[in-house]
């Protein structure tokens, strides 16, 4: 079965939404916890944002990758292989 432009659009849109919302929520949780730990450890206030950002960025990229992999597997690879409704381990 050929993959249509509509399926690509659906895959991209869901990847964008899940990656953005998931990355934001995950980043807020990690950033809040890490900021609190640094604050309790006595780190200067100006040192907290760069440390939190340098930890959050790679973690949010990982969340984005997981959302991309899920989206492509579900809406592109599955229909292209004819495995609609069957989850395959990647």
What gap, in angstroms, lies between the N and C termini?
A: 21 Å
Number of helices: 2
Number of strands: 0
Low-confidence stretches: none
Query: Roughly how many Å is the radius of gyration?
Result: 18 Å
Q: Tell me about the biggest sheet?
A: none
How much of the residues is beta strand, in percent? under 5%
By secondary-structure content and strand pairing, the structural class works out as: mainly alpha
> SSE order in H/E notation?
HH
User: Which percent bin holds the helix content?
Assistant: over 70%
Shape: rod-shaped
Q: pLDDT average, as an integer?
A: 87
How would you sum up this structure in a few lines?
The protein has 2 helices and no strands. With 90 residues, it is mainly alpha-helical. Helix 1 runs antiparallel to helix 2 (48-81).
Structure commentary:
By secondary structure, the chain is mainly α. The protein is built from 2 helices and no strands. It has helices at 5-40, 48-81. The mean pLDDT is 87.
List the helices and strands and how they pair.
Elements: H1 5-40, H2 48-81
Primary descriptors:
single chain, 90 residues, mainly alpha, 2 helices
């Amino acid at each position: 079965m050929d993959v249509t432009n509509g399926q690509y659009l659906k895959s991209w849109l869901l990847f964008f939404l899940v990656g953005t919302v998931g990355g934001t929520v995950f980043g807020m949780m990690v950033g809040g916890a890490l900021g609190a730990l640094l604050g309790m450890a006595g780190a200067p206030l100006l040192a907290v944002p760069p440390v939190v950002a340098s930890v959050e960025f790679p973690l949010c990229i990982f969340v984005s990758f997981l959302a991309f992999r899920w989206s492509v597997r579900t809406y592109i690879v599955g229909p292209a292989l004819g495995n609609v409704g069957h989850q395959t381990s990647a």
